Amino acid sequence: MGSTVDQPAGRPRILTGDTPTGRLHLGHYVGSLENRVRLQDEYECYFLLANMHAFTTRADKPSEIRESTLEIVRDWIAVGMDPNRSTFVLQTEVPAIAELTWFLAMLLPFNRVMRNPTLKTEIDAKDLGDTYSFGFPMYAVGQCADILAFRPQLVPVGVDQVAHIEMCREAARRFDQVYCGVDPHAEEEDYEKLGGVFPVPSALVGRVGRLVGTDGQHKMSKSLNNSVFLSDTPKQVKKKINSMYPGQSREPDQPGDPAINPVFDYLDTFCKDEALRAELRDRYTRGDNLGDGHVKAAVIDSVNELLEPMRARRAELEGPGGDDAVIDIIKAGAVKANAQAEHTLALAKDAMGLNFGDRRSMLGL
Question: Are 81 and 37 in contact (CB under 8 A)?
Fold first, then answer.
């Protein structure tokens, strides 16, 4: 059941991704996307389109999920994620993930899964009550399989996903202890060296763990209608930033407090000009004839400077033939992704005593 597929020497691996629930926004960018772009040359990168997970709450909207999947690929390429340097993985085209999900589900107690704070938050945010599908909690286990199928060392995520990564780490440790005989007291970084199938991956949080939305209160979220999307036009960016409440009422000649003004969070996050940031903060604090509109204007310019090359790259995948180009990228990624995930599954099944023959030949392939 073995395979020759494995990671190149000297290049550790990362796996991360997005559930196709719509277009990506600035919060996604600073939370994870810019890390993915930066790490492409240092790591062997697998980027997952978790379209199977989208069905946990939108099983009756398959056409929307399909379109959102294509939109995310466009966003990825727009930000600089390169399918020639990284592997784009469409979850539903990698059957080994679903099989591994089943095995991992036997190692994680149900009450542990339901204590996952991210899962609980999503149930509340989407007002699911007790009407969510049987498959909904399974997605938390499935996310562990998404990651472990590719045996990465790092998982770049936003801060709200760290709880999911912790459960994945538990699943990796539990599997290696139960089926590979790894000592529970062993150091996590030694699990593979001691015969474990899975490394114990670590979360890598972006430089901004939680970007506030344009409402100035809640985390940026599509569902809260407080997002600046990576595909927004300059006019849309200007309108959204100008709508932000600065956290206080003041005149330009009155001192203000940047610490309670979310516009300054955006200035610090997106404005590259350190001298300009310092000047605006100083003048605002002293009430030196500086209105909120001046700060917003600097933010608008900075955000549009960031997004302009993204708009250009995205435009190449829109219009006639755009969907076909995206699908070709997905197909190419599926070949490499399946080779790696099948190799991992073979290792896992060997460890579990389920090595009854070559899987491909049994399937007639």
Answer: yes
